[in-house]
Design brief:
globular; six-stranded parallel beta sheet; binds 6-phosphogluconic acid; alpha/beta; Rossmann fold
Protein backbone atom coordinates (compact mmCIF):
# COMPACT_ATOMS: atom_id res chain seq x y z
CA UNK A 1 0.00 0.00 0.00
CA UNK A 2 1.43 3.38 -1.01
CA UNK A 3 0.78 6.87 0.25
CA UNK A 4 2.28 9.95 -1.42
CA UNK A 5 2.56 13.11 0.66
CA UNK A 6 3.70 16.32 -1.03
CA UNK A 7 4.69 18.94 1.50
CA UNK A 8 6.25 22.39 1.87
CA UNK A 9 7.13 21.44 5.45
CA UNK A 10 9.35 18.46 4.73
CA UNK A 11 11.27 18.22 8.00
CA UNK A 12 8.30 18.74 10.32
CA UNK A 13 6.17 16.34 8.30
CA UNK A 14 8.89 13.68 8.43
CA UNK A 15 9.31 14.16 12.19
CA UNK A 16 5.55 13.91 12.67
CA UNK A 17 5.35 10.62 10.74
CA UNK A 18 8.30 9.14 12.64
CA UNK A 19 6.97 10.23 16.04
CA UNK A 20 3.44 8.96 15.40
CA UNK A 21 4.72 5.63 14.10
CA UNK A 22 6.79 5.16 17.26
CA UNK A 23 3.89 6.25 19.48
CA UNK A 24 1.45 3.87 17.78
CA UNK A 25 3.75 0.86 18.09
CA UNK A 26 2.98 -1.87 20.63
CA UNK A 27 6.45 -3.35 20.31
CA UNK A 28 8.65 -3.39 23.42
CA UNK A 29 11.59 -2.54 21.17
CA UNK A 30 10.93 -0.26 18.19
CA UNK A 31 13.17 -1.17 15.28
CA UNK A 32 14.06 1.81 13.10
CA UNK A 33 16.48 1.91 10.19
CA UNK A 34 18.21 5.14 9.23
CA UNK A 35 19.16 6.10 5.70
CA UNK A 36 22.19 8.03 4.55
CA UNK A 37 22.91 10.83 2.16
CA UNK A 38 22.11 14.47 2.76
CA UNK A 39 18.30 14.55 2.79
CA UNK A 40 17.67 13.00 6.20
CA UNK A 41 20.18 15.07 8.18
CA UNK A 42 17.81 17.96 9.05
CA UNK A 43 15.17 15.40 9.98
CA UNK A 44 17.58 13.67 12.37
CA UNK A 45 18.60 17.04 13.83
CA UNK A 46 14.94 17.91 14.44
CA UNK A 47 14.26 14.55 16.12
CA UNK A 48 16.76 15.41 18.86
CA UNK A 49 14.29 17.86 20.41
CA UNK A 50 11.31 15.51 20.28
CA UNK A 51 9.95 13.56 23.25
CA UNK A 52 10.85 10.06 22.07
CA UNK A 53 11.68 7.14 24.39
CA UNK A 54 15.02 6.45 22.73
CA UNK A 55 15.90 3.70 25.20
CA UNK A 56 13.28 1.49 23.54
CA UNK A 57 14.63 1.99 20.03
CA UNK A 58 16.91 -0.33 18.10
CA UNK A 59 18.69 1.44 15.26
CA UNK A 60 20.01 -0.06 12.05
CA UNK A 61 21.32 1.49 8.83
CA UNK A 62 19.94 0.54 5.41
CA UNK A 63 23.36 0.91 3.86
CA UNK A 64 26.87 2.14 4.45
CA UNK A 65 29.82 3.33 2.50
CA UNK A 66 33.01 1.26 2.82
CA UNK A 67 34.80 3.80 4.97
CA UNK A 68 35.59 4.04 8.69
CA UNK A 69 32.91 5.51 10.98
CA UNK A 70 35.08 8.60 11.39
CA UNK A 71 35.10 9.33 7.64
CA UNK A 72 33.02 12.25 6.33
CA UNK A 73 31.32 9.90 3.84
CA UNK A 74 30.12 7.56 6.60
CA UNK A 75 26.34 7.37 6.97
CA UNK A 76 26.89 6.32 10.57
CA UNK A 77 29.00 9.43 11.22
CA UNK A 78 26.30 11.69 9.80
CA UNK A 79 23.59 10.04 11.93
CA UNK A 80 25.78 10.02 15.04
CA UNK A 81 26.59 13.72 14.70
CA UNK A 82 23.02 14.75 13.86
CA UNK A 83 21.14 12.49 16.27
CA UNK A 84 22.60 9.43 17.95
CA UNK A 85 25.22 11.25 20.01
CA UNK A 86 22.52 13.61 21.33
CA UNK A 87 19.85 11.18 22.56
CA UNK A 88 19.74 8.46 25.20
CA UNK A 89 19.89 5.48 22.89
CA UNK A 90 21.66 2.40 24.25
CA UNK A 91 24.96 1.76 22.50
CA UNK A 92 24.20 -1.95 22.06
CA UNK A 93 20.92 -1.02 20.38
CA UNK A 94 22.81 0.56 17.51
CA UNK A 95 23.58 -2.05 14.87
CA UNK A 96 26.24 -0.34 12.81
CA UNK A 97 27.40 -1.62 9.44
CA UNK A 98 31.18 -1.70 9.91
CA UNK A 99 32.31 0.17 6.82
CA UNK A 100 35.92 -0.16 7.93
CA UNK A 101 35.86 -3.93 7.31
CA UNK A 102 36.03 -5.90 4.09
CA UNK A 103 32.53 -5.43 2.57
CA UNK A 104 31.75 -9.17 2.52
CA UNK A 105 32.74 -9.50 6.19
CA UNK A 106 30.92 -6.31 7.10
CA UNK A 107 27.69 -7.52 5.49
CA UNK A 108 28.02 -10.92 7.16
CA UNK A 109 28.59 -9.42 10.61
CA UNK A 110 25.62 -7.07 10.26
CA UNK A 111 23.35 -9.90 9.15
CA UNK A 112 24.55 -12.02 12.08
CA UNK A 113 23.60 -9.19 14.44
CA UNK A 114 20.13 -8.99 12.93
CA UNK A 115 19.65 -12.76 13.01
CA UNK A 116 20.57 -12.86 16.70
CA UNK A 117 17.72 -10.45 17.33
CA UNK A 118 15.06 -12.09 15.20
CA UNK A 119 14.64 -15.66 16.55
CA UNK A 120 14.61 -17.51 13.23
CA UNK A 121 12.20 -15.31 11.30
CA UNK A 122 13.23 -12.35 9.17
CA UNK A 123 14.15 -9.20 11.06
CA UNK A 124 11.16 -6.86 10.74
CA UNK A 125 11.75 -3.12 10.98
CA UNK A 126 8.87 -1.15 12.47
CA UNK A 127 10.00 1.85 10.43
CA UNK A 128 12.64 1.88 7.73
CA UNK A 129 13.77 5.20 6.28
CA UNK A 130 14.99 5.35 2.71
CA UNK A 131 16.41 8.05 0.51
CA UNK A 132 16.54 7.86 -3.25
CA UNK A 133 18.86 9.02 -5.95
CA UNK A 134 17.91 10.73 -9.20
CA UNK A 135 18.82 7.48 -10.95
CA UNK A 136 16.19 5.67 -8.90
CA UNK A 137 18.58 3.94 -6.51
CA UNK A 138 17.74 3.49 -2.87
CA UNK A 139 19.94 2.37 -0.01
CA UNK A 140 22.89 1.13 -2.05
CA UNK A 141 20.70 -0.73 -4.52
CA UNK A 142 21.98 0.98 -7.66
CA UNK A 143 20.82 0.29 -11.24
CA UNK A 144 22.53 -2.70 -12.83
CA UNK A 145 24.25 -3.91 -9.66
CA UNK A 146 24.37 -7.45 -8.30
CA UNK A 147 22.57 -6.68 -5.03
CA UNK A 148 19.35 -6.11 -6.98
CA UNK A 149 19.21 -9.87 -7.56
CA UNK A 150 19.73 -10.94 -3.95
CA UNK A 151 16.78 -12.99 -2.77
CA UNK A 152 18.17 -14.81 0.28
CA UNK A 153 20.67 -12.75 2.24
CA UNK A 154 19.52 -9.75 4.22
CA UNK A 155 22.69 -7.66 4.03
CA UNK A 156 25.09 -7.79 1.09
CA UNK A 157 28.19 -6.21 -0.32
CA UNK A 158 27.60 -4.41 -3.59
CA UNK A 159 30.13 -3.05 -6.10
CA UNK A 160 28.93 0.14 -7.81
CA UNK A 161 30.73 0.40 -11.20
CA UNK A 162 29.58 3.99 -11.87
CA UNK A 163 31.28 5.10 -8.66
CA UNK A 164 34.01 2.41 -8.65
CA UNK A 165 33.28 1.77 -4.97
CA UNK A 166 31.98 -1.01 -2.80
CA UNK A 167 29.01 -0.47 -0.52
CA UNK A 168 27.14 -2.61 2.02
CA UNK A 169 23.37 -2.57 1.71
CA UNK A 170 20.16 -4.12 2.94
CA UNK A 171 18.62 -6.34 0.29
CA UNK A 172 15.04 -6.24 -0.97
CA UNK A 173 13.97 -9.18 1.22
CA UNK A 174 15.04 -7.35 4.38
CA UNK A 175 13.69 -3.97 3.29
CA UNK A 176 10.38 -5.42 2.16
CA UNK A 177 9.90 -7.21 5.47
CA UNK A 178 9.37 -3.81 7.11
CA UNK A 179 6.05 -2.84 8.64
CA UNK A 180 6.42 0.72 7.34
CA UNK A 181 8.84 2.39 4.94
CA UNK A 182 9.22 6.16 4.78
CA UNK A 183 10.92 7.38 1.61
CA UNK A 184 12.43 10.86 2.01
CA UNK A 185 12.82 12.66 -1.32
CA UNK A 186 13.25 16.34 -2.10
CA UNK A 187 13.56 18.20 -5.39
CA UNK A 188 11.69 18.22 -8.66
CA UNK A 189 13.68 15.41 -10.33
CA UNK A 190 12.94 12.93 -7.54
CA UNK A 191 9.31 14.07 -7.42
CA UNK A 192 8.97 13.37 -11.15
CA UNK A 193 10.65 9.98 -10.74
CA UNK A 194 8.17 9.01 -8.02
CA UNK A 195 5.27 10.15 -10.18
CA UNK A 196 6.65 8.09 -13.10
CA UNK A 197 6.79 5.06 -10.78
CA UNK A 198 3.25 5.63 -9.55
CA UNK A 199 2.28 5.78 -13.25
CA UNK A 200 3.77 2.30 -13.68
CA UNK A 201 7.45 2.77 -14.52
CA UNK A 202 9.10 -0.18 -12.79
CA UNK A 203 12.57 0.30 -14.26
CA UNK A 204 14.11 1.84 -11.15
CA UNK A 205 15.60 -0.08 -8.21
CA UNK A 206 13.34 1.85 -5.84
CA UNK A 207 10.32 0.61 -7.84
CA UNK A 208 10.83 -2.76 -6.19
CA UNK A 209 10.32 -1.39 -2.69
CA UNK A 210 7.06 -3.14 -1.89
CA UNK A 211 6.62 -4.40 1.67
CA UNK A 212 5.12 -7.88 1.97
CA UNK A 213 2.78 -6.79 4.78
CA UNK A 214 3.52 -3.14 5.17
CA UNK A 215 3.05 0.37 3.92
CA UNK A 216 5.21 2.82 1.99
CA UNK A 217 4.90 6.54 2.57
CA UNK A 218 6.57 8.67 -0.12
CA UNK A 219 7.31 12.04 1.45
CA UNK A 220 8.08 14.54 -1.29
CA UNK A 221 9.49 17.94 -0.38
C1 LIG B 1 23.66 6.76 0.64
C2 LIG B 1 22.18 6.54 0.73
C3 LIG B 1 21.56 6.78 -0.61
C4 LIG B 1 20.91 8.13 -0.51
C5 LIG B 1 20.56 8.66 -1.86
C6 LIG B 1 20.01 10.08 -1.75
O1 LIG B 1 24.42 6.01 1.26
O2 LIG B 1 24.02 7.74 -0.04
O3 LIG B 1 21.82 5.43 1.29
O4 LIG B 1 20.61 5.83 -1.00
O5 LIG B 1 19.74 8.01 0.30
O6 LIG B 1 21.73 8.66 -2.63
O7 LIG B 1 21.02 10.90 -1.24
P1 LIG B 1 20.71 12.45 -0.95
O8 LIG B 1 19.75 12.47 0.18
O9 LIG B 1 22.04 13.03 -0.57
O10 LIG B 1 20.12 13.00 -2.23
Amino acid sequence: MNEVIKTDHFVSEAVSIIKSTIAESNESVFRMSLCGGGTPRPVYEALVNEAIDWENLEITFSDERCVPPSHDDSNYKMAAEALLSKVSIKENNIIRIKGELDPVESASQCEDQLRKRSNGSIYMHDLLLLGMGEDGHTASLFPGTSALNESERWVVDNYIPDKDVNRVTFSYPLINASRKILVLATGEKKKKLVNDMIDGDESFPISKISPDNGKVIWLLG
